[in-house]
Amino acid sequence: MKYVIILGDGMADYPIAELDGRTPLDAAVTPFMDRMASEGTLGLVDTIPQGLLPGSDVANLSVLGYDPEKTYSGRGPLEAASMGLVLGPDDVAFRCNLVTLGPGEDPVMVDFTSGHISSAESKEILADLNRELGSENIRFFPGVGYRNLMIWRSGRNAVKLTPPHDITGRSVQGYLPEGEAAGKILELMQRSRQVLKSHPVNRRRVESGLKPANSIWLWGQGRAPNIVPLTDQYSIKGGMISAVDLLNGIGIYAGLEIIPVEGATGYTDTNYLGKASKALAALKELDFVFIHVEAPDEMGHEGSVAGKIRAIEDIDEKVLGTILQGIRDFHDYRVMILSDHPTPISLRTHAADPSPFAVFSSKKEENLCQGLSFCESSAQKSGLLISPGYHLMELFMRSWGAFVEKNHS
């Protein structure tokens, strides 16, 4: 049996007035997702446990079968794993965004991506941050674009930090660090503004009409988690395809091979076809491949209705369509398409509502064939809800046939 999971980050949404009360998933032209929902099995999955923030870190741990209440320790350590950084038991890893803040003593979070600054520019900036702010215990590490990392060796973890994508367009004064380690974190963030104020990268960006990366924003801190590889749990060989360090870090802890794809960017210009093609090639040797596409989430954060619809349609045509065509070369298979959490256009950040999923199996008896389309309202009509969401992986891998038989009307 071959298994493929395709995850469109943040695809789910709320009804939008300009779409006549439809969501982007409902408005998008998605024949392959609709086929999965109609001929396979459609439902809702609840990936965010009560009391945890609705982030891609928590949600994707759930999707891969891990109980976040037991395994989640923060986003930073997951991204550190992707970057090959080994954390000691007392080390704390922080996500370090390069952001654009507005002017003055009461700055606004203008852009949590610094206008999607390039990885090369970020690397140049972080090298100077290490020279100016780094120490024996504090080091900065470049990641992908605006998504970077800071490690505090033998650091403190007791601090409340706010994800920058949650406060776009708001004054940052009400969201500054709080708690035991707040003083050190705030000092680093404030000092970074002085370092970056006239940095050569920012001068070039401003001259080109681009947003400057004029501050760091630290968040998502945590120590190394304790995660049992799913490759051991299911006795399989598997792979992870993603352009973002968070998912690759989760993949490493899960025991998955990280499969690079040229042109994968974590944005709407990513190499959709390349991801699907690499997955099909990998399945000749592997049993399981997880394909993650970040683009819909980015469009949700930007509040772009058209961009989110386009990203969803690209996933449908170029990723899912390619997978459904190519996977027929394998005798037995199951394919799942889902959103990890909603990133509603109206909120421009993550929400904790359950999200649609659809599973299609090569075995006819493993499909409910509900005749529904792939969207939030249809998933609600299905009457199927997997909660807690981390149970979905166990069903998908081990007992999908029994689950479908139980739910036949």
| Helix share, percent | 25-40%
> Shape, please?
globular
Number of strands: 15
CATH topology of the largest domain: Alkaline Phosphatase, subunit A
**Kindly, what is the distance between the CA atoms of the first and last residues, rounded to a whole number of angstroms?**
27 Å
CATH superfamily of the largest domain: Alkaline Phosphatase, subunit A
Q: Which consecutive residue ranges, at least 5 long each, have pLDDT under 50?
A: none
Mean pLDDT: 97
User: How many distinct domains?
Assistant: 2
Strand content: 15-25%
Strand order of the largest sheet: 11-10-12-1-13-14-2-15
Q: Please describe the biggest sheet, giving its number of strands, its sense, and whether it closes into a barrel.
A: 8 strands, mixed
Q: What's the CATH first level of the largest domain?
A: Alpha Beta
Query: What is the rounded Rg?
Result: 21 Å
Total of DSSP H or I helical runs spanning 4+ residues:
16
Model description:
This protein has 409 residues and is of the alpha/beta class. 36% of the residues lie in helices and 19% in strands. It has two domains: 2-72 and 226-407, Alkaline Phosphatase, subunit A (3-Layer(aba) Sandwich), CATH 3.40.720; 82-222, no CATH class. An eight-stranded mixed sheet has the order 11-10-12-1-13-14-2-15, with helices on both faces. A hairpin with a 7-residue loop joins strand 3 and strand 4. Helix 5 (75-82) crosses helix 10, helix 6 (119-133) packs across helix 7 and helix 12 runs antiparallel to helix 13 (305-326). The mean pLDDT is 97.
